[in-house]
Amino acid sequence: MGKWRRRPHTSGMLAVVTGANRGLGLQVSRDLLALGYDVVLTARERAAGEQALRELGARAGAARSLVLDVSNPESVAGFARELSGGPAIDSLVNNAGASFDGFDENVAARTLDTNYRGAVRVTQALLPRLAPAANVVMVSSGMGELSRFSAALAKRVLDPALDAEGVELLAREFVQAVAQGRHLELGFPQNAYAVSKALLNAFTRALAREFGESGRRVNAVCPGWVRTRMGGSSAPRSLEQGARGITWAATLGPDGPNGGFFRDMRAISW
Ligand code: NDP
């Protein structure tokens, strides 16, 4: 583990994990419960969330499941309403993600809407509910590394003046470029998943600057290649190995980093 320490007291702290009915989200929920957190796990289907709760066999009252489709703004707003009036959120893990077959304008739009915009929506809707020392985690991927982009475009994405609005403009630019068959010419890779994670990382940096010295932290984490429905059965990492770095970033103490990108608790390049 890196030089940063976990929060010393976790009992009764609240974590929210999106896309937690299976895969990494379910494992992170299990790990957070074991550390003493209360966990709200979200699932698109109510039945899938309830099944996940049964699988976790959590101590009474420690876990509950709520319905959330991150690509549906009404679902996100309804979810935020359900949490309003409750305790503040100490850890928000934006884990929900998808990878679609093929490559065209429609796939580009759907991928960005889930992996990048979904996390943005949920984070912005829950900002008023975040505890003063909350950890926000963006479950990202090394696939989003900017080495896949042209040098000129990578420079734009890394511009420290790029705010959340600027990231959104880049997202629209990508989908439009794909529709026009100009994405390669403009410096984007031919991979919507890679672009969605690169933009998620860019949003992470912008939000980290907004958080500043406030005490809140946001970091992006790559779990490595993990055996899940998305990762497939030939992936080298177990769920436990993949979830470890995500849980670490969700439980950082007051001296923890803000605005970094990590794999196995170590900083990696954007
Ligand atoms: P899984 O496919 O096993 O799980 C994905 C989860 O996200 C499911 O719970 C799924 O719900 C949910 N989800 C998908 N779309 C939405 C949506 N619109 N709204 C809400 N939930 C949604 O994949 P992983 O566990 O592997 O993936 C978790 C995260 O890790 C993703 O962000 C992924 O990009 C990232 N990651 C994974 C890697 C790997 O090797 N596995 C490598 C790098 C990053 P449902 O069951 O309803 O479909």
Account of the protein in words:
- The protein has 270 residues and is of the alpha/beta class.
- Helix content is 41%, strand content 15%.
- The chain has eight helices and eight strands.
- The radius of gyration is 18 Å and the shape is globular.
- The site of NADPH dihydro-nicotinamide-adenine-dinucleotide phosphate has 31 residues, from helix 1 and helix 4.
Describe the structure concisely for a colleague.
The chain is an alpha/beta fold and 270 residues long.
Based on the model shown, name its key terms.
alpha/beta, 270 residues, 8 strands, binds NADPH dihydro-nicotinamide-adenine-dinucleotide phosphate
* Poorly predicted ranges: none
The largest sheet is: 8 strands, mixed
Name the hetero compounds present. Answer: NADPH dihydro-nicotinamide-adenine-dinucleotide phosphate
The ordered H/E elements are: EHEHEHEHEHHHEHEE
Q: What global shape is seen?
A: globular
- Tally of alpha and pi helices: 8
pLDDT averaged residue by residue: 95
Strand order of the largest sheet: 3-2-1-4-5-6-7-8
Strand residue percentage: 15-25%
Range of helix content: 40-55%
What is the gyration radius calculated from CA atoms? 18 Å
End-to-end C-alpha gap:
20 Å
Compute the number of strand runs: 8
Q: Structural class of the secondary elements?
A: alpha/beta
Please outline the helices and strands.
Blueprint (H helix, E strand, L loop, with lengths): L13 E4 L5 H12 L3 E6 L2 H11 L6 E5 L5 H11 L5 E6 L10 H22 L3 E10 L11 H8 L5 H16 L12 H20 L5 E5 L17 H12 L10 E3 L2 E2 L3
Parallel strand pairs: 1-2, 1-4, 2-3, 4-5, 5-6, 6-7
Antiparallel strand pairs: 7-8
Helix pairs in contact: 1-8, 3-4, 4-6, 4-7, 6-7
